[in-house]
Amino acid sequence: MHGTEIDVDRSDATSRAETTVTVVLPRALLAIFPDAPPELRVEARTVGEMIAELDARWPGMRDRLQDSTPAVRRHINVFVDGRRAKLETALKDGLKVYVLTAISGG
Amino acid sequence: MAQVLVLVGTKKGTFILRSDAARRDWALSGPFCATWPIQHAIGDPETGTIYAAGGDTWFGPAVWKSTDLGATWTHSSEGLAYAEGEEPIKAVWSLARGDGALYAGVEPAGLFKSTDGGSTWSHVAGLRAHPSRPEWNPGGGGLILHHIVPHPRDPAKLWVGISAAGVFYTADGGETWEPRNRGTRADYNPEDQRYPEFGQCVHSLALAPGGAERLYQQNHCGMYRSDDGGQQWTSIEAGLPSTFGFPSAAHPRDPETLFLLPLNGDILGRYMPDAKAAVWRTRDGGASWTALRRGLPQEHAYFGVLRQALATDRLEPSGVYFGTGGGTLFASADEGESWQPLAQHLPQISSVETLVIDA
Question: Within an 8 Å CB–CB cutoff, is residue A75 touching chain B?
Answer without folding.
Answer: yes
